[in-house]
Amino acid sequence: MALMMENGVETDEDMCATVMARFRNSQQPEHKHLCAVVTAMAEVLREQSLTPSPTAYFAAAMSSLDRQTKSPSRNEAVTTALCTFLALALPKTPASVRRSKSDAILKLLVKLLTTEEANAATVKAGLSCVENVLVAADKSSWLALAPSFNLLLHHCLDARPKVRKRAQGCIVEVLTNLHGTHALTTASDSVVSLFERSLATVSKSLSGGKSEMAQSSNTTGAVEVLHMIGALKQLLPHLSAKAIGRILPHLGMLHELQQPLLTRTVLDTLQALCMSPSADIPAASLGEILGRLGSLLSSGERRNFVDEVTVISHVIQHGFDRLHDADHHLCVTKLPAVFHSLAGLLASEQEGIVYAAGDCMRSLVASCIDEPMIKQGVSQLQSQGTQRKGALTAIERICVTCESTLSYQYSTAWDMALHIITALFDKLGRDSAVLMVGTVKTLGDLQNLSDNDMPYRKQLHKAVGAAVAAMGPDQLLVLLPLELDGADLLKSRVWLLPILKQHTVGARLQFFSSTLLPLAARLRERACKCAADGKPIAMKNAESCVQSIWALLPSVCNYPVDTAQGFGLIAKALGDALNKEPELRGLICSSLQTLVWQNQEARGDHLEGKKWAKTRPGESSEEVSASEERAHALYTPETATANLKAIAGYSRNFLPLLFNLFVASAPEKRGDLQATIGAIASISDKQTVKSFFVAIMKKLLQATMEAATSATPVEGGGQMEVDAPKPEESATSRRCVFMDLALSLVEGLDSEALGMLFTTTKPALQDNDGAVQKKAYKVLASICQGNIGFMSLKSEEILETLLTSLSSVHSSARRHRLICLHHLILHLSKSGDGRKDEAIATLISEIILATKETNKKTRNAAYDLLISIGHGMEDPENGGSRERLLQFFSMIVGCLAGSTPHMVSAAVVGLARLLYEFSAELGHTIPDLLPSALLLLRTKSREIIKSVLGLIKVVIARLPAVELDQHLHSLVEGLILWSDDSKNHFKAKVRAIIERLVRRCGMEAVSAVMPQEHMKLLTNIQKTKKQTEKKKKSVNAMEEETDNKSVHSKASTAKRSKWNHTDVFSDDNEEDDSDDDMYESTKATSMTKASLASKYRGTTKSKILRKSNKRLPEDAMDTGGGEPLDLLDTQRTREVLRGPKSQLTKNDVDDEVEFTADGKLIVDESGDRIREKLKRKKQWEEDHPDTESQGGQSLKRRRAGDKSVSGKARSTREQAGSRAGTLQKPKKAPSSSWAYTGSEYANQKSKVGGDVKKEGKLDPYAYWPLDPKMLNRREAKRTAARKGMASVIKSTKKLQGMSASRALAPGGPIRKNKQQKAHKGKSKGKDKA
Prior knowledge:
Helices cover about 65% and strands about 0% of the residues. The chain is mainly α and about 1350 residues long.
């Protein structure tokens, strides 16, 4: 069926068939009438041999409708059906036909709509018809169309809601179509006139007295006004600017009437107007209405109504956005007063009002405060100085308002006020040092409040941090000095140091040199003096402040604004600190690296592969602050070049110092030093770097010769000394050190120096020492990485060197060797060198074998190299094509003929990786590859089987389901060979793959090819699937409940990589948990509590047992990590209940860490606390000799029984051995319930017995153990238990004068009574027998 085309072009659609298809099965009477009318018209067209086109149906409907309107006995149902059909036919009728017949159509429709007999359905259909005609009519003759438009307008005031809604929608369509024409002004005037007439009617009725007629007219007029305002909600954005300007004052006056229903309707209309992007709002009228709303917020009685204030806030927010774009001067004039009114709402007791006002204020700060507004305030302040004259500027008034929100009357909303102030600091930038002086001082005063008076400490620190980032640390410390030179450091503003460290950006190096370094020096002198005076605590406090000040250096070096001028001021201090203070080397090195790399990035240098490239501001996952964006914008290529030149000027000073420190440092502390050497060398003069490089080469050659002369021959020559221990100062270790130094200088070397380094490195590639070999390959990889010119000259020699050293490569050096191959093959591909294919063919076996390396990084390097070669083979720009990719794939297929299982397995792994990456290009090769791969399943090599199963998983994931069905029989046939192998965990792997097949192809398809003896597996899979789905539904219901209860959901997500070796070739038997995840390119999983619980609940019991067996003791349960146990987490609760009872909680640990009230760690140097704890523990054991401990035995009883355990165990084992062939009836486990026996008070020193009193204890007492049967659900059991309790009460006379221990003793009266009863019971049984 053809669709209707635009511009009113007639289609071939059969209207009768369309209507019948839509309404044939409907039971509604109006739909049945519509179908009957359409069928009749179709029959008439068929009798007249007319084509059933929309035009023909339109003519037939018009004729029938005309007859109906003229008929004295009109059938309303038929009229409704005809109008409805006409509304369906008109949009499909050509616009030319509608335009030519518009007068006749409108005349007929007006006559029909003005009759009182028309029902709502007829009116709705008629209004749609009028809309279609007006849209298609000629707009130049609007005067003829105006009556029909006014008819639509009057129906907006209809008493029937559905009629009003349809009329409003029709007018919106007509007004939208009128945009850009003169008719829009006339139509808009009609809307305004109707609105003003309805207002006038209400005014007259209000002044007409209190008669019943006046009151009725008043009610009718008020309802019409509400209907008209409701219509304006949709119509107002589409009117002309002049009409909007006339209506807005009326809406403002209506809002001031403070009538709830009227106020809400007016506010909804204003909100729709301000949020409409196409509305043409006059700036003057908008400014006036926004001013009125602001005044109402400051003094109105309804400012405590949450819904109303929320809508007003939205109107102000969007209205000022429009006003700022339309008239900047008017926006600046109106903004301060409205901003002040919103600030007053922060003192409200309603939380919704506070949040609405706060969000609106932050939005106004972000959208309406601009550079001209800020500059006006700053220039006026700077010109007048301290003697202020005249009124405050707009920005000053806003700043004063924000400062006032920190007063005590807004204390309940300080968190929101601090958010607003943070936004204002971000907006003002450096100018906040002039405009926000009082605010900064107030923030400092708030910090001095106690936690009870200031519960928003985090928001406060964030606001202070925004001030640091905006105005800079130098300006902030002028307003809030650190005061670290005072007598008591605890009274200083040391709390500012962590904030400065976190938020400083775009600072001045000169400030660090002139202010912070002298302060650190004074504090160090103070620490030395305190140490001499015997004040260790004061000394530690001063040293801590020194470290905190130096910790600001990396932040100060984050886009500093005066690098070219200020670096020389701190260079000497940095060198001295590097040399004399080892604990500061990490900070200084990271700062120097940041300075170099930031400027290199700004200059446009290539930074890929460097640490900075992973964390540079533009690409970080976190949002970059406005201050950092401003600082980064100042770094132009010219500025960056000047900065690097200034830093490079000190390379002759820093490089020798760093060399010496590198050589003298321990190996684990050389990383930062090496990166810093590389950063400085990359920007230094080539000749300077070369001079240092030559000196290093001389020392390297000397160390190499010493290592050669000191080397001892190894038995079985040719074997490498890899793990033999070497002294730290040996020649080999010094050789590695100098190779590392040479490596760090690579970026600053010219071609000649690189050639010298390559020549020196070549022999080391075949060195017997694994560490030397690894360093050599690392140097070669660095040379190949970024030196295109050198690679062009030496590519053949490098290739030959790599081929020659293949036989002697050590596993620890293989990753860096693969990186060398990667760069070499990439260079050969880009240069179009014909030797590329030969090199790949020669090295393919090495690359394939590397995919089976144990080291994860080596394995990933091999995968990357395979994929890189594949893309190079396919890239047309480098002479590649799909055929060449297939040739490369065939090379790897040829490796399946390897002589060792390891080689075959590696080839399968390589094929799986390529199929995963190039599934679209290589998918057609799977039918030819799969039989050979499945044939490998018949081998006995576990390594090959494991790889083939991984390949099958990739095939199932990447092959379309239609093609997968063709290979289903062979896949299942190969998989079931290992479906019963539990020894190698293949059973679980095969099950997971078959589950995946079921999900891809369906249960029926897999069942059709599954052998009958293995159908139980499919039955179990289906059963497990149903259980899992059922659990998932319950979990989803729990999550929905949780989401409904909490507005803010916390979910941590983790992205999975495209390829995961462990998921495909996992060695454990639980890869089905992650089976679905590895097939998605990027998968984010939300690990909420409910999902974690579902993960464990969906795990089979055997898996849980296997996991619990692998679990370490400390993982068995939460051992008091400070986090409360979630009792709603069923799995976690079960783990705790199953855990060993002997585990100690945090409070039971003897060496528990203790802190003072102010958070300082208490160090027990004398050991008094530990001795006191041991004494208390010993006393407790003496007071509780029979208390259970570790397995239900008392400590004394356990110590005494240790000696007899071995003998009992031996005899038990002998008895068990003699009865090994017989089944023993399991004995009933002893009751785990605990009963208090009163033995604590037993007189153990005397044989007389009785109880004794304990000092500091209660008098002797005992508990009668309650019978758990009293809680039984059976009435008989509960009755028997109650009888037992009654007998206890009756026997109290027998127990008078007895001690608790004697009464409860085995030979006591109670136990004796029970034995007698039991004996009587046995006797009765014998008598009966």
